[in-house]
């Protein structure tokens, strides 16, 4: 069975703090893809990153970074020096290529 | 502009009255999918389609139907809506490569209320 767990329902930080959003997944497939999406208060879903199961290199994009650890089935997302505009719901998702499973999401609030 | 469109954006209906939510994409994507978003549950996949005339059930297909007669369109049909189908619905599309599906482009969402 495919499953994505985002244990943090809500996180609140003050601007400029670093914050890590956790994502743990379960799958029996050896080939799969992991994603992160952002849903700002306006409601649209914005793609952030896609990572395949064979690529465990961490990735950095500006203030965003992702840590993929196959040994612990985790794909965590860190925002460095958070800003108010980072306030959103963040979803982690898993797919072996056909169906897609999303986590329940983590609501991040960044206060000025 | 590359986009996924959904119509209507908002819909209030009554129990049992058949309705269709349309979804169209202009990116020539093979893969299309429908999700519902409910508080505390994230997005759950209803149906997906790998290509024309190929559809498959997602996590929560009960009470829904889909069809994929053309590559660009993927309508969601509720033949007899019930109040537990009140939700925010998203359509999405993506290209599919040899390694699997790429990032999905989402429509703006359809907020459905069934009374």
Salient structural properties:
heterodimer; A: 112 residues; mainly beta; 53% strand; B: 115 residues; seven-stranded mixed beta sheet
User: What's the order of the H and E elements of chain A?
Assistant: EEEEEEEEEEEE
H/I helix tally of chain B: 0
What count of helical segments of chain A does DSSP give? 0
Return Rg of chain A in Å. 14 Å
Instruction: Name the poorly predicted regions of chain A.
Output: none
Structural class by helix and strand composition of chain A: mainly beta
Largest sheet of chain B: 7 strands, mixed
Distance between the termini of chain A: 41 Å
Q: Strand portion of chain A, in percent?
A: over 45%
What do you see in this structure?
The complex is a heterodimer of chains A (112) and B (115). Chain A is an all-beta fold. Chain A has no helices and 12 strands. In chain A, the strands form 3 sheets. In chain A, strands 2, 5, 6, 10, 11 and 12 form a 6-stranded mixed β-sheet that branches. In chain A, strand 5 (33-39) and strand 6 form a beta hairpin. The N and C termini of chain A lie far apart (41 Å). Chain B is mainly β and 115 residues long. Chain B has strands spanning 4-7, 10-13, 19-25, 31-38, 42-51, 54-57, 65-66, 76-78, 87-94, 96-97, 100-101, 105-106, 110-114. In chain B, the strands form 3 sheets. In chain B, strands 2, 4, 5, 6, 9, 12 and 13 form a 7-stranded mixed β-sheet that branches. A 4-stranded antiparallel β-sheet of chain B has the order 1-3-8-7, with no helix packed on it. Chain B is globular, with a radius of gyration of 13 Å. The mean pLDDT of chain B is 93.
Compact summary:
The complex is a heterodimer of chains A (112) and B (115). Chain A has 112 residues and is mainly beta. Chain A has no helices and twelve strands.
């Amino acid at each position: 069975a495919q499953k994505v767990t985002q244990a943090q329902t809500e996180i609140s930080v003050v601007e400029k703090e670093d914050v890590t959003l956790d994502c743990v997944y379960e799958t029996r497939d050896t080939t799969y893809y992991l994603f992160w999406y952002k849903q700002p208060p306006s409601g649209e879903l914005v793609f952030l990153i896609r990572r395949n199961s064979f690529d465990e290199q961490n990735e950095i994009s500006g203030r965003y970074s992702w840590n993929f650890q196959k040994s612990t089935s985790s794909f965590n997302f860190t925002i460095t020096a958070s800003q108010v505009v980072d306030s959103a719901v963040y979803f982690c998702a898993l797919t072996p290529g056909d169906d897609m499973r999303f986590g329940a999401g983590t609501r991040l609030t960044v206060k000025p | 502009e590359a986009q996924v469109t959904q119509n209507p954006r908002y819909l209030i209906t009554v129990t049992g009255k058949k309705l269709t939510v349309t979804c169209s994409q202009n990116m020539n994507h093979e893969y299309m999918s429908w999700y519902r978003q409910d508080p505390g549950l994230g997005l759950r996949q209803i149906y997906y389609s790998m290509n024309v005339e190929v559809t498959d059930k997602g996590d929560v297909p009960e009470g829904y139907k889909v069809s994929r007669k053309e590559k660009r369109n993927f309508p969601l049909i509720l033949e007899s809506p019930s109040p537990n189908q009140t939700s925010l619905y998203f359509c999405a599309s993506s290209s599919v490569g040899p390694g699997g599906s790429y990032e999905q482009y989402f429509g703006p969402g359809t907020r459905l209320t069934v009374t």
